[in-house]
Amino acid sequence: MHPEVKAVIELQQLDSRIAELTAQIDSLPLQIRKLESELHEFIKNHEAERQRLAANQKARRDLEGDIQLIRAKISKHKDQLYEVKTNEQFRAMLREIEGEEENIRQIEDQLLEKMVEAEQLERHVKEAASHLEGEKARVEQESRRLQALCQADEQERARLLEQRLALAAQLEDRVREHYERLRKSRGSAVAEVRDGFCSGCHVRLRPQAYNEVRSNSTILTCETCGRILYYVEKAEPDVQPAAPASGASASR
Length: 252
Ligand SMILES: [Zn+2]
Hints:
- The protein is mainly alpha-helical.
- It has 2 domains: 3-168, Helix Hairpins (Orthogonal Bundle); 174-231, no CATH class.
- Helices cover 75% and strands 5% of the residues.
- The chain has 5 helices and 4 strands, in the order H-H-H-E-E-H-E-E-H.
- It has helices spanning 3-80, 87-169, 173-186, 207-215, 246-250, and strands spanning 190-194, 197-198, 220-221, 228-230.
- The chain has a 4-stranded mixed β-sheet.
- It is rod-shaped, with a radius of gyration of 42 Å.
- The structure holds zinc ion.
- Zinc ion binds at residues 191, 198, 200-201, 203, 222, 224-225, 227.
């Protein structure tokens, strides 16, 4: 193969690996942000549940306080029963006491609801608290893994860029400029010819051009897309397939 053709093929391989590494490196900040926001979300939910639990506890204390107040009132009214002068006043006082007892029953129902809710909240808060450290550790570990990967990618890319520089320097200016232009405009600058077609643009080569590229003796470009063409000689198929091992058939 023509040495410059070999060099541009190698250059293209380097460039696609460099592009792959760059995409990986560039995606790191986004991946880290995603991890951090997962942890943030977890902590935020946990905090919200804790606040709901605290609010529930306060509501229960308030309701219990209300019951105490009403009980005090009832007991005062019961004392007053002995002081009333008329039957009417007596009945009115009894009705008042009944109304207050009904209030207590309603508050006790609310209290019961709050207690059921509290049980559920306590369970969630306890569960989240037990997972929190694990979640922090997971995010920490994953971030470190991604950062290490990124560092390795950067090292590899720096090494490949050096190789690329040396390789590009071996090319004639004309070829190098053509390569760079095609790489920028078409994404790739080199294409294999397969069965008479350019694998870059899938257009059939003229027979003469096909013959020339098969000789691999000079730099040729596709008349349609401009990519630098090369041809890989197909390996001759084995004329005599290997005989099956006799041991294998004997064992059947
Ligand atoms: Zn082409």
